[in-house]
Amino acid sequence: MAATYRLKVLTPTRRELDEDVVSVVAPGEAGYLGILANHAPLMTTLKEGELKVRFADNRETVYRVGGGILKVASNDAIILTESIEQV
Q1: pTM of the model
Q2: Cα separations (Å) of 66 from 15, 27, 33, 63, 80?
Q3: pLDDT score, position 10
Q4: Of 74, 82, 71, residue with least CA distance to 26
Q5: CA distance to 6, 24, 25, 70, 81, per residue, from 73 (Å)
Q6: Is 36 within 8 Å of 26 (Cβ atoms)?
Q7: Are 71 and 48 in contact (CB under 8 A)?
Q8: Strand 31-36 vs strand 5-10: parallel, antiparallel, or unpaired?
Q9: Given this model, what pLDDT does residue 77 score?
Q10: CA 39, 61, 85: angle at the middle one, nearest 5?
Q11: How far apart are CA 53 and CA 58, in angstroms?
């Protein structure tokens, strides 16, 4: 089983996701970036684009995010975004 970490996605009005995931591919300002468990600490801005999430149960879901901020530290990833919707 692949190592997992916690992903939280927050919008101004609610918590959209709070689940264990295996990987995330996010639309960073300088290009897409992949996040796996035990990733080095990171804080970056996100542009509008596709957010690909592979959950602990191995399902993969693609979302459209409206830009925002991504913070990764201590096996937690937090995305603050104006909007997110499943594609």
Answers
A1: 0.94
A2: 15, 10, 16, 10, 10
A3: 98
A4: 71
A5: 10, 14, 16, 10, 18
A6: no
A7: no
A8: unpaired
A9: 98
A10: 105
A11: 10
Structure tokens at 56: 């602990």
Joined tokens for residue 32 = 């897409």
Q: Which residue has the tokens 């290009």?
A: 31
Cα-to-chain-centroid distance, residue 31: 14
Mean pLDDT by 10 residues, the chain (87 residues): 94 96 96 97 97 96 97 97 96
pLDDT recorded at residue 2: 86
**Exposure of 87 by Cβ count < 10 A (0-12 exposed, 13-18 middle, 19+ buried)?**
exposed
Residue recorded with tokens 């927050």: 10
- Cβ neighbours of 10 (radius 10 Å): 17
Nearest Cα residue to 18 out of 56, 64, 66, 58: 56
